[in-house]
């Protein structure tokens, strides 16, 4: 999204690892056959898959600190930087909206229906949309606020969200709760977005909904605070690593303690989840920074750096590709029709593996396939900036 002027190879590596993992879990061969660590928690709790999105938003925060620090130091450039951030955020939102509306428009054209019907049922929020919104707000906070104010804002966001979710009675329910369809965030999504524009798999709530965007901003601010520390010139590398580890472990412990009262939950993006995931991200970056940037072990980093420098590009293409390929309908021997990608999976994977392994091998193939494209772009120094 933004290219740090003072680049950390470990940050590119960590970002690439996160995006590759995101594509892996988002593209199984069959949603009915997935290994448990590659699935989201049913509701409360946290699997490795539940850490991927907050890791990415946290990394966005670190990148903001690296990319915009020079602008922050020069008040004359504040307005220009904020306008640029808003443009980038809007583009990210529109890319996410395009992925949501694309298939619906094509289906409407094929079925000779009004294209307007696609807009009546399109999901308004999603992963890229959330990244865009969080990026805009977090960038403005970073440019305009001091580090102490950013830290205070981070704490206030977590506290306010906790209070809203655990003390405000939900209209129509009469009491505060954290259940799927009756919590305050779900009520707000249904009231503002309406069920026609929420997540298709639920219809009654959205995992990237309106209210839960508030603590998602907190995740990005956590990353910004880490990025500010990592840029300091007056601190040596061992101290930076020790501080990162300490911060990460402290945040994880606090998150686990808060989980006892405000459960760790990705769909609600609870305050305990912000601390827990942000703490693990801090520990992950500390480890990567020490091995790669401090100790100089860099040979193994290329595959994930390749993913990291074109992260948004590959995420968008990975979401677009199956939508396009499955528009090509093939007729099966029994006369039914299926998409090209589905047919390829059923022909080349399911006959040779057990259902769950076929699904995993397909996802790995998907990641490797995009690696070929990204490696070509990397060698040609093609970096597509949003």
TrEMBL record:
Signal peptide: none annotated. The keyword Transmembrane helix applies. Keywords: Membrane, Transmembrane, Transmembrane helix. The chain crosses the membrane at residues 12-31, 51-69, 90-110, 122-143, 150-170, 209-229, 241-261, 273-292, 304-325, 359-378. The keyword Membrane applies. This is DUF5009 domain-containing protein. It comes from Pedobacter jeongneungensis.
């Amino acid at each position: 999204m933004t290219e740090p002027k003072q680049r950390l190879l470990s940050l590119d590596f960590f970002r690439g690892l996160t995006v590759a993992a995101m594509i892996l879990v988002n593209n199984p061969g069959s949603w009915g056959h997935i290994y448990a660590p590659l699935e989201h928690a049913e509701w409360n709790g946290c699997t490795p898959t539940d850490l991927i999105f907050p890791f990415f938003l946290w990394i966005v925060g670190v990148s903001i600190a690296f990319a915009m620090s020079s602008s922050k130091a020069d008040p004359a450039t504040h307005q220009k930087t904020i306008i640029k951030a808003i443009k980038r955020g809007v583009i990210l939102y529109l890319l996410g909206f395009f992925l949501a509306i694309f298939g619906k428009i094509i289906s409407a054209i094929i079925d000779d229906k009004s294209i307007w019907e696609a807009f009546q049922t399109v999901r308004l929020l999603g992963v890229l949309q959330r990244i865009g919104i969080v990026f805009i707000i977090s960038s403005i906070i970073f440019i305009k606020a001091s580090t102490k104010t950013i830290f205070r804002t981070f704490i206030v966001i977590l506290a306010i969200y906790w209070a809203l979710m655990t003390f405000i009675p939900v209209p129509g329910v009469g009491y505060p709760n954290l259940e799927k369809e009756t919590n305050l965030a779900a009520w707000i999504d249904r009231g503002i977005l309406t069920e026609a524009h929420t997540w298709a798999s639920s219809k009654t709530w959205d995992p990237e909904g309106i209210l839960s965007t508030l603590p998602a901003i907190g995740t990005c601010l956590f990353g910004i605070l880490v990025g500010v520390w990592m840029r300091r010139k007056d601190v040596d590398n061992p101290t930076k690593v020790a501080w990162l580890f300490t911060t990460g472990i402290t945040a994880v412990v606090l998150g686990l303690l808060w989980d006892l009262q405000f459960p760790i939950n990705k769909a609600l993006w609870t305050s305990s989840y912000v601390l827990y995931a942000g703490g693990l991200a801090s520990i992950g970056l500390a480890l990567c920074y020490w091995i790669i940037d401090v100790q100089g072990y860099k040979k193994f980093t290329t595959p994930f750096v390749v993913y990291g420098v074109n992260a948004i590009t590959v995420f968008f293409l990975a979401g677009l590709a199956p939508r396009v390929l499955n528009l090509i309908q093939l007729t099966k021997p029994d006369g039914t029709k299926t998409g090209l990608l589905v047919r390829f999976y059923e022909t080349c994977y399911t006959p040779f593996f057990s259902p769950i392994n076929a699904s995993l091998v397909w996802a790995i193939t998907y990641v490797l396939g995009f690696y070929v494209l990204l490696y070509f772009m990397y060698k040609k120094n093609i970096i597509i900036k949003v």
